[in-house]
Fold each of these.
Amino acid sequence: MHDVALPTNLAQLAQERWQTLRCEHPAKPELLRLLAMSDFAYRVLQQSPELANWLLDEEQMKNRDVPFPLTDDLTALSESDCFRLLRKYRQRYWLKVMWLDLVKGNDIADSIRYISALSERLIDAANRWAFAQTVKQCGTPLDESGEALAMMVIGMGKLGGAELNFSSDIDLIFCYPRNVSTQVGRKSVEAQVFYTKVAQKLICALNQVTVDGQVFRVDMRLRPFGDSGPLVMSLSAMEDYYQDQGREWERYAMLKARLLGQQTQHWQAFYNMLRPFVYRRYIDFSVIDSLRKMKHMIAQEVRRKGLVNNIKLGAGGIREVEFIVQALQMIRGGRDTSLQTPSILNALSQLKALEVIPPNIVHSLQDNYLYLRKIEQYLQAFDDQQTQTLPDSAVSQARLVTLMGAKNFDECLAILQNRMTKIRDEFSQVIGDEPLEHTQSDEAYTYLWLEGDTEQLVGKVNEEQVEPWQEALQEFKGALTKRKVGARGADILDKLMPCLLQQAAELSLSGNVLSRVLNIVATVVSRTAYLELLYENQGALKQLLFLTSHSQWIAEHIAKYPILLDELLDPAALYKPLPLNAYKLEIRQYFLRIEQHDLEQQMEALRQFKQTHQLRIAAADATDVLSIMKVSDHLTALAEAIIEQSVNLAWLQMTERYGQPQGSHEDAKGFAVIAYGKAGGWELGYDSDLDLVFVHNRDGDSYTNGEKAISSRQFYLKLAQRLMHLFNTRTASGILYELDTRLRPEGNSGLLAINLESYYQYQLQQAWTWEHQAIVRARLVYGQQDMRERFMQIRANILELPREHDKLLEDVTSMREKMRNHLSKDSDELFDLKQGLGGMTDIEFIVQYLVLHYAQRYPEMAEHTDNVRILACASKLGILSEQEQTVLSEAYCFFRELYHNLSLNRQGKCVAKDKQIHAMTQKVTEIFEATLAK
């Protein structure tokens, strides 16, 4: 295939590029082929045209040498020289691999081995240089025999398996053998400090983009605790982590772990530590279900990203071969130690030798796997981009057609589909899919759907619902005429609808609820993957009907964000929200699979994390698994986790550009977020906005430590602006939360991020009474411990200020009257739960007044931020009678639950004034008038 003549467009491109190189000798056909096939090769030859002669040297191209990229004296080698040498080395040898693949048709197994060996040499060289430079500053960590203790670099993924592609990024984990301080340096430092410096230098040497480009994109998210964990750990700390906290997915990840560089006496200790975590001593069939779930997650990711023609993640792609092999390795690897290898190809050979897989199946898997890896190599070699998606551009399609020896691009697709189908068949045999739950639907529902025979409804649904069902179906069919539905989609829809209608009838759904469900189907009807999900998982379909019958909010939420349909596959998780303290860890784990520098993907991930967990909370809420108080607790904990992750993302983006403010670091950013209102009082609802104020603890004289240094005050202002962008920008998944920052000092005219002490002075000297009322429910939801403690002290000081009683009464009552006049929807027949006379806001104003009036005498009144506990405290102190506290607490919780249930079904905020409502509001009004007249 590599002697096929170039098509006209590629031949012309090659000639044009050759002319620009201005080489002295005539164009060689092989060089022209390389220039036509690769934009990257053209760029390298433009910079270093002398490499053309090197490529033509057959002896040089035959050997697989991996020389050391740097000079011998690593201590004297400057950073700029080190970076340049590493990058020039990559350009030179990646050009060689490209020549072998695109021009010479080299065996792909040889190419990926060679790329992996070259990559390991580059990583090892960078590690040695980083170690030498850090020793120069800090001294050397030594073992008991006086030998230097080098940092251990663990290659993960394809690097660990020695299976790298042309443009693969590299997944690394760092550790060190012993916890010993350095010796013979300017100043002795602890091991953690020393090796963190080595790790930072190593990452910078490989990852940083310079005028010579980048060596590798370095991904450190597979390390213990992910992005929130230390950059490097001791072997013993790593062992403790995997024993106590290692997750199931980390077992699969560590199966590929391999130490890189020159072997030391400490390597065996690492492998001894890792082996029992990855491999079980018994035959472990539990991995099948776990791998199946992982595959579902990948399928979900493919749907989420809208990936098509992806030879890695698609059905029958590279990842499925990896799953087949890894599943069998983990099932049997504890007993058959020959399977304990990070290499896919070595593991396949061992599975054949052990007669776990028949020889013909091994040959088929290996042949198809290597073929797809070869195509992946081509795709990445075209422009040195990490991609596994077949090209859209005419030039790259022509390249692929030529390399595959096909007649046209359609034939390329057919060849690849044939190979991927064979892989898919083997994957289904080993991993399988969840058992399909199809039930034979009653033929009446088929006639109802296909023929529009509404007489079939008689006896199937309640008589009064026959007409609403007919209207719902007519409206749905009308909506379908405006949607684009392909042949495959129409076929699946015709299978799905009778099942859906039968289940809806069995659940006795009203026509109104049926309309909700059909609205969701109409939303996804042009996306066949979702129709298949509902048809092939009847349990998921049942959950959809069940949940939409309980809540219009859930129905609208799923219709708006169809990716949430994936959540219906696992009812055990759907109705079981995370523990309150688990949201922060869960979002960190969720972000391990998100590209660190892909802002758009990060913003989508934040929104999808929120939507997924809001759905789980709503599912538990709608089915009475959670009480109203617990629902708000979960929604608030979810919001706090998202705030923390957003701050971390914004911090990373800002520090990469400006450096860190002096005295700050990852775990003590000098930045905090104060939540007011519902978030501060643990009372968030599903559509609540967030009232936030941003503060920092740096003065105006300090600066950041980056090349583009700015004042710390300006840095925190930009950090707050970046947070606003992360939250308020409307993406395909909507906004994250509506952020309201008007409660900050001086409102909209004030600084978006203010020094914490300036915040205090404003509250002392300039704030209005209503601003102090707001502080009653203010709580610091993100920030380091010293800032948390300082804010609590400030809040207590403000709330405990002496106040003139008459003025306080006047300010509070006039503000309440003003709000009621502007916002209340009360009428003779309806009661506004929130702003109406005797409603929730009246109770909140009673609480705020009591805190501001009595906190100076009773500091306990300033301890809590939620209304119910403040009322309990007031009763305990004798400020309110026990009866008054009971009336107010019960009314507040009752109104909140009513308001919440109305929200779940989009029914506004007003209820009919029945006897119970009238009695409650009258009692609340009496207490309001009596309390605010004291």
Amino acid sequence: MDERAGKAGAAADPGPDTGEPVVGRDAEWARLLRAVDPASPERVLLLLGEAGTGKSTLLDSVARRAAASGARVLRATGSESESDLAFSALHQLLRPVRAEAERLPEGQRAALGGALGAGRDAAPPDLMLVGVAVLNLLSELGGPSPVLVLLDDAPLFDRASLTVLSFVARRLAGESVTMLVGARTGEHLPGFDGHTPVLGLGPLDDASAHRLLDLQPRSPAGRTRARVLDQAVGNPLALVELARSARDPGREPPPAGPLPLTDHLEWVFAARLDGLPSPTARALLLLAAMDTGDSALALPAGLPGAGDDAWLPAEAAGLIRRTGSGLRFRHPLMRSAVYHAASSEARRAAHLALADLLRTEPDRRAWHRAAAAPHADADVSADLVRTAGRASRRGGHAAAAKALQRAAELAPRPEDGARLLVAAARAAVLTGDLSWVEELVAAVRARTDDVGLRAEAAAQAGRLAVLTARHSAVFARLTDTAEGLARSRPAAALDLLTDAAVVRFYAGRADQLHRLEEVLAELPEDVPDPWPGVWVRAVSDPFGSRAWLVPRLPRLADESAGRPERLTAVGVMAWLMDETPLAVRAFDEAFDHWEAHGALPDGMGGAAAWAYLEQGRWGRAREACARVTAVGSALGLDHAVACAAAVDAMLLALQGDSEPARARAAEALALVDPLESRSVAVYARRALAAAAAADGAHETAYDQLRAVFTADGSPVHYHASYPALADLAAAAVRAGRREEAAAIVERAARALAGNASPRLRALTERARGLLADPGDAEARFRAALADPDSAHRPFERAQALLDLAEWLRRRRRITEARAPLAEALETFRRLGARPWAERALAESRAAGLDVAGTDPGSLAGLSPQQRQIIGLAARGLTNREIGERLFLSPRTVGSHLYRSFPKLGITARSQLRDLVERAGGNRS
């Protein structure tokens, strides 16, 4: 009944063009009206309820009210059969605005067209770029008048559409777009997580239930009424339909029993099929088998036209309703009842008939052929493989995986089925759904004993598992499998160890390094491809591998030219070795070539952001964080989101945005178990310490930094803890904890010994200078500045310069202090490190330097996102280009600029470049 059972007899008015009010939903109706009000800050609302509680009724009523008020209404309804067709829901939603989509920028238009099947079969579109295209399209549509997006039965949408729409939903703040999403209670809705406001529909109260029954034709009374009320338990659909059945002496509702309400209702609906004419029954079965939410596709498939007499008995039985020129079941349960009431042979015949009629729709045809296949069929299996290929080329990885999984079930030869299951796992990895990937891996093991196929399947699971927070269990599984393959399949074993090394980095446990070394020792020495082994050693033990690997990095970078995956790996390894210039060059080249079409965040997704932060390219670092956050959030990969949040928190803290920094660090810590993800925990604590230091809370800063080392002073994480040494010393001096900090610094220096990078030696020397007796400090500070590559880490160099200058000034060597002070102040201003710039400014004035204070029209009064947008605009980027980088609509970018200009004391975009340079340079 499309959940229209709640209609009739209430005070709430669902819209000016309908005389059908809604019973017992006054509060819910009022909440929906508030949500669609253009002035409402609530841009997304999730409407949850059991089947038949009236979700579709309310959404339809809101749609009518919004349309009558001049809003543009776009809607899509999920259907079971189309959940296997990539971007089918998005296609349905955007069909009315195809002309407007043609006005999108070329890249966005091409990405959206490729997703919707309108482009050439080239590389698959980037899901995030598709998301930006949809966001911008909706934003433009919302310019003249508000836009209402209705997504009904959203859990039945295909996964690619859900990924894009959830991406859009998180970015509607400030837009004239409202998104209402309908779903059954308890159904999984990827991307629409706990941050989405929820409006729940519960049962009607007794008074509303009675009122709804009173409004039915021949309202039931007496025992029949009591029985209907008892069985319906306040469900509006059940009340209406059970009352309808009670009016027919031959179709009374079944006695109350253990069946759930939906089964009772299906029994009621199936009973109405008795006595229907054969043409009607056949048409209903075809409509049920077609199961499309898009009536424009149903009628060309060979069903009788909406005006055909065959439909009249079904309409009279309350099974279908007319929708414009088409027909639909009045409720999904009615479709289910019709389909399952038919014999298996009748269902098979219906699917074959539809397949024959859908020759111009190859993907739908393939799925109907598969539904009709009673046993293995090589031809149908091949058809589904071709469907999977088309889905993959459009970025529909979930649709591709489903097609390959079904193709495997229909493959006559077990080994062919196993290969298809491995391919399905490879596609499913890109959906972020680890349980599904593990299900496919288990199916491979059940289908074949082939060691290679089993190893490849395990590698696919490992690829995704490293992005989850289940590090201990994942590491054990990866290394145990690799050990079993070490002799027979060494290349496959090494592939598994590459993922295990990433898990070791995240978890930071010493015993995991020993385990990796054990398995590596079992591998033969003549492995054809040395790359995996190099990666494992670099990621799991960067300082122990440093002397051997650093000289090889430039050659590895040259060999990787034009191969973004390899370049990214070189960048990660270089970053781990503190070879920042090489790391950034590799990341830059990789990102210039990278076509991240629906890809996962990199296994070391935060590495690029950290490298950019260290080199002083803070804007680029935040862009990298935004990318990982967008992809990770869309795919439900909390650990990837946590990695990005920790880097972002540090950037915010260094810029003096203490509260946002603490919020981002708290977000990172909330997404992980600190004992399972030591790297994230350490990075988050370092960010919290930087935020505390920016506020002058040095004891808090020290406590946070002390926590990145164990009670005996060992690093909590073998790589992430060491760069905190200098900041630990600085906080200790101000908190009166010199002795404890000095012990930790010296222990770290002994542990690193000859394996320390020049960067870590510089940080250690700076820490020693801060903690040293006054007479011994200068040599330590100058040693910290001796590394010629320190210029590639400008913030850390500026910190050391400021420490040296402060020491010199306090020794009354004021003339010598001025040069390092001037350089430090210029660097801090250029980076936008406000707390540090203020400290350097105070020191400079104390040293007699004639330096100007902060410009009153500076960026300090803006939010972090506004400063980021201003910086990009100052570099000449358009609103659209800024939006693509930050995953915002041009309208949102423009709104931020509009609100920022008065704060900056400017009136034109052309003034931004000079302003940003005066305020500290253009931080790219």
